[in-house]
Amino acid sequence: MVAAQTVQLPLYALFVAALLLAGGWWLTLRTLKSIACGTQVEQPERDWSVPVIDASAEGDSLFHRWDVRFKIVALLGFAFLVVATRSPWSALIAVLLSLTAVFVAKLPLRRSLQRLLAISGFLSMFLLIMPLTAVTRPGDTLLIFGHLDWLSFNLRGLQLALAIAGKACAVALLMEPLLATASLPRTVEGLTRLGVPEKVGQMILLAHRYIFVFIEESRRMMVGMQVRGFQRRGNVETLRVMGNFLGMLFVRSFERTQRVYDAMQARGYQGRFPAPFYFKMSAGDWLHASVWLLLGVALLLFDRLGGC
Amino acid sequence: MHISDGVLPISIAIGCGVASLAVAAWSAKQTASEDLPKVAVVTASFFVSSLIHVPLGPTSVHLLIPGLVGVLLGRSAFLSIIIGVLLQSLLFSFGGLTALGANALMMGVPALLCGLLFNRLRGTTHKQNLLIGALAGGGGTLLAASILALLLVSGGEDFVGVMKLALLSHLPVFVVEALVSGFTVSFLFRVKPELLEQRLGALSQG
After folding, report:
1. Does B68 reside within a domain?
2. What is residue A33's predicted lDDT score, i.e. its pLDDT?
3. Which backbone phi and psi does A9 adopt, to 5 degrees?
4. Is residue B1 situated within a structural domain?
5. A94 exposure class (CB count in 10 Å sphere: 0-12, 13-18, 19+)
6. Alpha helices of chain B — where are they, by DSSP H?
7. Is the separation of the CB atoms in A130 and B152 below 8 Å?
8. Is residue A271 within 8 angstroms of chain B, CB to CB?
9. In this structure, are residues A79 and B97 in contact, taking their beta carbons and an 8 Å threshold?
């Protein structure tokens, strides 16, 4: 019923393609992982499972000197413009632009690669599933291997998945220039100046601080459980222990936090940290922000009118 | 369970962003400032629990606990969830920047409803709390998965296949979530029942 163009391929092509795909995927992940983890400094004191947001806040680059408020608005606007594009080609250009940002900000590539690694699972699922399940529309090209009629590989689906993956990577690469080029309190202060309630800003800072405390706490509790002979198995007993573990984590962290909060209030905490941040906007901030927004608009125009 | 950047159509992404900001503003207004430490604790625990893996057959799943957040925080749950999701996005890029609103709605709306449900039912015995906790945990995850499915399908019929796979892979998670949440609630009921009070919402209401 649908006039889709089908391309018949021999059955062995499927095996070759599957092999190439799996090999390529494995190789990409390996490379990403080795770069992401290879240069890691061994420091037993620090927990590397949760990275520091603002590790490179001390650097000096175009991004570091940029007023935080302009940075947030411009890069967020750029991200939304990128996400609005449709074709894989514009997504590719967006990835290149984001990579440029990482280099201009003089940031280590490792953290950006870790971010890509974090989303790779989700994106691999899309790349694998979309071509197989996309609905056939007139004008689509279907690849069919041998006589396996039910296994049709829709090239439009692949295109769709590639565009999604590209856009996701482009935005993920933007995160480091956006966040790592100023200290987190400064970024949050910028958010507050942009209209986010102060209460929420404080919550972000408090919760971020507690994450590291709780991870340490939960690790201590886990060691205690293992010393007493607990082993993770796939049964209800394990889930019961995990439930109690979570409950205990709540109880302990709540009591600790209450004590800390009382101490903070005793020292005069009234809902904000008295850290002076000075913001001054200059012509350069406006210029830098408009460059990014114009790039985004140009990308969107290219995507909608460019015809590819 | 996160949606990454670029999956949702731009109109849906922006719409979810606006809606989640509105709900978060309401939720923040409902939160008294002396309850901020509790909200921060639950937010950080929400984050940390996503790092806790529970073995399940040959693989393992990580906890999501939207239901538990709702049970503990009531109306402040949405504020907690949106900050948790934001931190996950900032630290790991789990869930994208532009999909932040969608992710917050996906976890936050179930959390609010579970909190409401828990407040209504409010068990008085150990067994009842176990059951209600399980209901909130499983129901919260089920609801979150349904919202995920709805959001994915908003991208068009091409996404139906992905949606089915996402739903299917979450089936075992419902069971794990239900049991763990049930056990946690019954543990808290025995050990520190005042944590289950949800007095936050009640305070600003009265």
Report:
1. yes
2. 76
3. -120, 150
4. no
5. buried
6. 10-29, 36-49, 66-73, 77-92, 100-121, 126-153, 160-191, 199-205
7. no
8. yes
9. yes
Give residue-wise pLDDT tens across range B81-94.
999 999 988 888 77
Q: How far apart are CA A82 and CA A305, in angstroms?
A: 15
Please report, as a single letter, which amino acid is at residue A6.
T
Q: Report yes or no: A166 at the B interface, CB cutoff 8 Å.
A: yes
How many CB atoms neighbour CB A62 within 10 A? 14
Position B200 scores a pLDDT of: 47
User: What residues contact residue A197 under an 8 Å CB cut-off, 6+ apart?
Assistant: B25, B28
**CATH code for the domain in which residue B186 is found:** 1.10.1760.20
Residue A36: both structure tokens together: 């992401």
Strands B53-56 and B59-62: antiparallel
Complex prediction ipTM: 0.86
Please say whether the dihedral angle defined by the alpha carbons of residues A246, A247, A249 and A250, taken in this order, is positive or negative: positive
The string of pLDDT tens digits covering residues B97-149 is 888 999 999 999 999 999 998 888 887 888 888 899 999 999 999 999 999 99
Q: Return the ∠ at Cα A14 (arms to A11 and A18), rounded to 5°.
A: 155
Q: Do A49 and B51 touch (CB under 8 A)?
A: yes
- Structural domain of residue B108, as residue ranges? 10-200
pLDDT of residue B134: 92
Specify if B18 maps to a domain.
yes
Cβ B41–A165 below 8 Å, yes or no? Answer: no
Least CB-CB distance to B91: which of A51, A166, A174?
Answer: A51
What 3-state class would DSSP assign to B156?
Answer: coil
- Indicate yes or no: CB of B56 within 8 angstroms of CB of A234: yes
Q: Which residues of B touch A80 (CB under 8 A)?
A: 10, 13-14, 98
Cα–Cα separations (whole angstroms), residue A99 to A93, A102, A288, B137: 10, 5, 16, 41
On whether residue B2 sits in a domain, the answer given is: no
Best of B93, B148, B164 to mutate (most A CBs within 10 Å, chain A)? B93
3-state secondary structure of A153: strand
Token pair of B172, please? Answer: 């075992």
- Asked whether the beta carbons of B6 and A167 are under 8 A apart, the reply is yes
pLDDT of res. A3: 61
Minimal-distance CA residue of chain B relative to A218: B48
Of A132, A172, A214, the CB nearest to B45: A214
Number of domains in chain B: 1
**pLDDT tens-digit readout, B43-58:** 998 888 888 877 776 6
Residue A176, SS3? helix
